[in-house]
Amino acid sequence: MNRLFAAAALTTLIAAPASAHFQLVYTPDPNIERPGDVPLKLIFWHPMENGHAMDMGAPEDIFAMFKGEKIDLTGSLTAMTFKGADNEAAAYEATLPVKRNGDYIVALTPAPYYEGSEDIYIQQITKTFFNKGGIPTGWDEPLGLPTEFVPLNKPNNVIAGSTFSAQLLSEGAPVAGAEIEIEYIAAEPDMETNAAGEATVGAMPGGALVAITDENGVFTFGVPRAGHWGFAALGSGPDTEHEGKELSQDAVIWIKAYDLE
Ligand SMILES: [Cu+2]
């Protein structure tokens, strides 16, 4: 709660955006038909308002889980510059090699980011789901991350207008009563230019969208629109300190919703 209030208070002072930081692991379509290398854009941004982008440090880890087999993606990391609507920021690219049918669950552990306005570090451990051939193979299994969301609906093809539920875990245990921030990628990044595209929606009045997990650590959100939706739990991870300062170790999950046509 503190961070939401802090963000709102800051807004009145410097007219900074009130919505949330979100770590992206982005590619336009998570549903893959042919084998090949899938480019991923790792961007730390305010995607719902097409707002300020933050400089990422070199990620601590990135891997994909495929049928219980861990594929190290750190060797594919390449620095790039993301051009947001307001500013440019250090970001990264990675490559996901997709060969066989099934779920490829990518987990990114970024370097802790120092947020000067709050005098804290933020580390958003982020899961994004890819699938080849429409064959489900483990999207509903936890990866054993320090904190993570485990989806209760298949995350790579949610129908716009339906609901999405997930369970929040910290060290494998459900987290009840956690605040979940909800975000939409308003201006999808261009894969060639690494620039934010045209915004399709504006920022919401009233600041960040928020849900609360129930006693089993589960939240549900009615997904109103096709596109990329992200969910973040602030401070749900076990690590609370980095370089002598407070660390918010967050869980982030991304899903892709489609219109039923
Ligand atoms: Cu922010």
Tell me what the structure shows.
This protein has one helix at 2-14; strands spanning 22-26, 31-32, 36-45, 53-54, 61-66, 69-72, 78-83, 88-98, 102-109, 113-115, 120-132, 147-151, 158-159, 163-170, 173-174, 179-184, 209-212, 218-222, 227-233, 241-242, 245-258. With 261 residues, it is mainly beta. The protein has one domain. A hairpin with a 2-residue loop joins strand 14 (163-170) and strand 15. The N and C termini lie far apart (39 Å). The structure holds copper (II) ion. Residues 21, 46 line the site of copper (II) ion (CU). Pfam families: DUF4198. Residues 1-20 form the signal peptide. InterPro entries: DUF4198. Keywords: Signal.
Task: Name the descriptors.
binds copper (II) ion, 261 residues, DUF4198, 21 strands, 5% helix, single chain, twelve-stranded mixed β-sheet, Cobalt/nickel transport protein, globular, five-stranded antiparallel β-sheet, 1 helix, signal, mainly beta
The averaged pLDDT comes out at 93
Number of domains: 1
Helix fraction, binned, reads under 10%
Distance between the termini: 39 Å
**DSSP strand tally:** 21
Give the uncertain stretches in residue-range form: 4-18
> What is the C-alpha radius of gyration, as a whole number of Å?
17 Å
The distinct ligands, each listed once, are:
copper (II) ion
The secondary structure category is mainly beta
Q: How many H/I helices?
A: 1
Strand content: over 45%
Characterize the largest beta sheet: strand count, sense, and whether it forms a barrel: 12 strands, mixed
Q: Multimeric state of these chains? A: single chain
> What form results from the Cα inertia axes?
globular
Protein name: Cobalt/nickel transport protein
Keywords: Signal
Signal peptide: 1-20
Organism: Rhodovulum bhavnagarense
